[in-house]
Design brief:
three-stranded mixed beta sheet, alpha/beta, 10 helices
Length: about 250
C-alpha cells in the first residue's frame, strides 16, 4: 500500500508472541527506536498470530494488542489467527460461523484418549481444537520441542492461569473479558496488502526463515530462551526483542 506521495508505506510483520509480555514490549520499543518516526507512526502492523500459550502473560499480551489502535491511531493493524488462538477461541465459544461440533471431532478421534480432550461443561458444543486445547495430555514431555508439556498438547495451562483459573476449567469462559472475546472472534486467517511484488509471510513454524520472497517469522517458537522477532518491509530489516537499541 502506498500513500498519496507514492512513498511505500512501511509494513511490520510481528512473529509469534506466545504469552511473553516483556518480549513484545521490548520488541515494540526496538521497532520504535530503529525506524524513523514517520515510518513507524504510519506503519501497517501485521501480527502473525499465536498470541497465547506457553508464556505466562497471555491476558496482558492481549490487553496490550487491544490498546495499540488508540495509542497509535495513524498505524493500521491486522491480527492474524494462529492455531493456538483458533483453539483458544474455540474453547471460549466465539468462533465465527456455524459448525457441527461433533463433526469436527472425527478427524482427530483416534487421538482423544492420548491427548486427554476436554470433557467439562459445554464440551458437547465445542470445536475439536478447543477440546484439545483445554484437555490434559497424558505425556509429560514433548520430544519434538524438548520441553515439558504445559497442561495440553497446546501448552495452554499458562493461558488459563493468566486469567486466574486452573487449566482445563470451564470457568475460563466467564473469566475472559468481552473485549478479549471480541479480539479473538475478529482475527483473520489471511491478509493481503498491495506491494510491488508478492511476498508470503507467516509465523507458526518455530524458526526464522527467509528464502527469496517466502518469509517465516517465528524465531521464538514459544520458548522462553528465544527472541521474538519482526520483519520490516520493504527493507527486509529484522528486529528482535533482544536487540540493544540504546
Amino acid at each position: 500500500m502506498t500513500d498519496p506521495t507514492n512513498k511505500p508505506r512501511t509494513v511490520i510483520c510481528v512473529g509469534d508472541i506466545h504469552g511473553y509480555l516483556t518480549k513484545i514490549l521490548n520488541l515494540w520499543s526496538n521497532l520504535q527506536s530503529q525506524l524513523d518516526p514517520e515510518s513507524f507512526d504510519t506503519a501497517i502492523v501485521i501480527f502473525l498470530g499465536d498470541y497465547c500459550d506457553r508464556g505466562p502473560d497471555t491476558r496482558k499480551v492481549i490487553d496490550f494488542l487491544i490498546s495499540l489502535p488508540k495509542q497509535y491511531p495513524n498505524q493500521k493493524y491486522v491480527f492474524l489467527a494462529g492455531n493456538h488462538d483458533f483453539a483458544f477461541t474455540g474453547f471460549v465459544g466465539v468462533l465465527p460461523g456455524e459448525f457441527e461440533a461433533k463433526n469436527t471431532w472425527e478427524e482427530y478421534a483416534d487421538n482423544e484418549e492420548r491427548e486427554g480432550w476436554f470433557k467439562g461443561d459445554g464440551y458437547e458444543k465445542m470445536h475439536v481444537q478447543g477440546r484439545r486445547w483445554g484437555g490434559w495430555i497424558k505425556a509429560k514431555f514433548n520430544a519434538v520441542k524438548g520441553t515439558e508439556y504445559k497442561g495440553s498438547i497446546y501448552d495452554a495451562a499458562p493461558t488459563f492461569e493468566s486469567y486466574g483459573v486452573s487449566h482445563g476449567s470451564s470457568d475460563l469462559i466467564k473469566a475472559v473479558p468481552e473485549d478479549h472475546k471480541k479480539f479473538l472472534a475478529d482475527m483473520v486467517w489471511v491478509h493481503e496488502e498491495e506491494l510491488t511484488e508478492t511476498i508470503v509471510v507467516s509465523g507458526h513454524h518455530g524458526k526464522l526463515h527467509i528464502e527469496g520472497l517466502r518469509l517465516i517469522i517465528d524465531e521464538g517458537g514459544g520458548l522462553e530462551s528465544n527472541p521474538v522477532a519482526a520483519i520490516v518491509l520493504p527493507s527486509m530489516k529484522i528486529v528482535r526483542d533482544t536487540d540493544n537499541s540504546s
